[in-house]
C-alpha cells in the first residue's frame, strides 16, 4: 500500500473517530449540558448575586464579574477531563476500544481524536457558562487572543490528563475520585472566588504551586484584562505542559498501557 493511501486512511479514520466521540456527548444533552447549566445558575445566584452585593470590588471589577472566568475554567476543564477519562475507560470496560486499536489509525491520530473531541466538549461547556454569566452581568472580552489561547490550551491539557486517567482507572469509582477529590479542589483553591492579594503571604506563595491559579488568571486576563500572574509566562508553560501530556498519551497508547491484558 502506498504512503498516500496510508495517509488517506489515517485522515479518514481520525475524522470518523473524532465524529463518533463528539456525537457521543452531543446526542446526550441531558448528561452533557444540563448539569453544568443548573450548577452554574446556582453559583451565579448565590456567590454572584446574594454574596456579591455584600462584597466590595476585587481588582477594580464587581465580584460577580471577577468569579466568572474561574467558573468558566471549572466547567471547561472538568468536562474535558471527564469526557476523555470516561470515553477511554468505557471503551476499555466494554472492549470496543479494540476497534480503534486494530484499525489502520496511527497512535497519534487515535490520541488526537480523543483529546480534540474532549477539548471540544470543554470549550462548549465554557461557552455555556459564559452565556449564563451574561444573564447576570455585563460580559466583555478585553484580550480576545489570550482568551482563545488559554481556553484551547487548558481544555486540551485536561483532555490529555483525562486520557491518562481513563487508562489508569480500574473502575468507575476511580474516575469519580479523580474529578471530585483532585480536580475540583485544585480549581476552588486556584483563585476562583478570591484574589491572591486578599490572602496572607504564606498562602499566596503556596497558591502559586497550584497550576489552576495560572489558568484562572489567564482566562480572567482574556475577559477583564486583569491578572495577578504574567499571562505570557503562564501561556508558555501551560502550552509546553500540554504538549508533554499529549506526547505521554501517544507513548502510553503505543505501549498498550491499560489497553491490553
UniProtKB/TrEMBL annotation:
GO terms for molecular function: ABC-type transporter activity. It comes from the Archaea. GO terms for cellular component: ATP-binding cassette (ABC) transporter complex. It holds the Pfam family ABC2_membrane. It is a multi-pass membrane protein. It is found in: Membrane. The chain crosses the membrane at residues 33-51, 63-81, 111-136, 145-169, 233-253. Residues 27-256 form the ABC transmembrane type-2 domain. Keywords: Membrane, Transmembrane, Transmembrane helix. InterPro entries: ABC-2_transport_permease, ABC2_TM, ABC2_TM_bact-type, ABC_2_transport. PANTHER family: INNER MEMBRANE TRANSPORT PERMEASE YADH, INNER MEMBRANE TRANSPORT PERMEASE YADH-RELATED. This is ABC transporter. It comes from Haloferax denitrificans ATCC 35960. The lineage of its organism: Archaea, Methanobacteriati, Methanobacteriota, Stenosarchaea group, Halobacteria.
Amino acid at each position: 500500500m502506498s504512503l498516500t493511501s496510508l495517509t488517506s486512511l489515517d485522515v479518514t479514520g481520525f475524522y470518523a473517530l473524532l465524529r463518533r466521540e463528539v456525537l457521543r456527548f452531543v446526542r446526550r444533552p441531558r448528561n452533557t449540558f444540563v448539569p453544568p447549566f443548573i450548577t452554574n445558575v446556582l453559583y451565579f445566584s448565590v456567590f454572584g448575586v446574594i454574596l456579591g452585593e455584600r462584597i466590595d470590588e476585587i481588582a477594580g471589577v464587581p465580584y460577580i464579574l471577577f468569579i466568572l472566568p474561574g467558573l468558566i475554567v471549572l466547567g471547561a476543564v472538568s468536562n474535558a477531563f471527564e469526557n476523555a477519562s470516561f470515553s477511554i475507560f468505557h471503551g476499555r470496560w466494554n472492549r470496543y476500544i479494540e476497534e480503534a486499536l486494530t484499525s489502520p489509525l496511527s497512535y497519534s491520530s487515535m490520541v488526537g481524536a480523543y483529546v480534540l473531541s474532549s477539548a471540544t466538549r470543554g470549550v462548549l461547556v465554557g461557552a455555556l457558562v459564559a452565556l449564563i454569566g451574561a444573564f447576570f452581568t455585563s460580559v466583555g472580552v478585553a484580550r480576545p487572543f489570550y482568551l482563545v489561547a488559554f481556553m484551547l490550551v487548558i481544555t486540551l491539557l485536561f483532555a490529555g490528563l483525562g486520557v491518562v486517567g481513563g487508562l489508569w482507572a480500574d473502575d468507575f469509582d476511580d474516575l469519580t475520585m479523580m474529578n471530585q477529590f483532585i480536580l475540583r479542589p485544585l480549581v476552588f483553591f486556584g483563585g476562583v472566588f478570591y484574589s491572591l492579594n486578599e490572602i496572607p503571604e504564606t498562602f499566596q506563595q503556596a497558591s502559586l504551586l497550584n497550576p489552576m491559579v495560572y489558568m484562572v488568571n489567564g482566562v480572567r486576563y482574556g475577559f477583564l484584562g486583569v491578572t495577578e500572574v504574567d499571562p505570557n509566562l503562564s501561556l508558555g508553560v501551560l502550552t509546553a505542559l500540554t504538549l508533554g501530556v499529549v506526547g505521554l498519551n501517544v507513548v502510553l497508547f503505543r505501549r498498550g498501557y491499560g489497553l491490553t491484558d
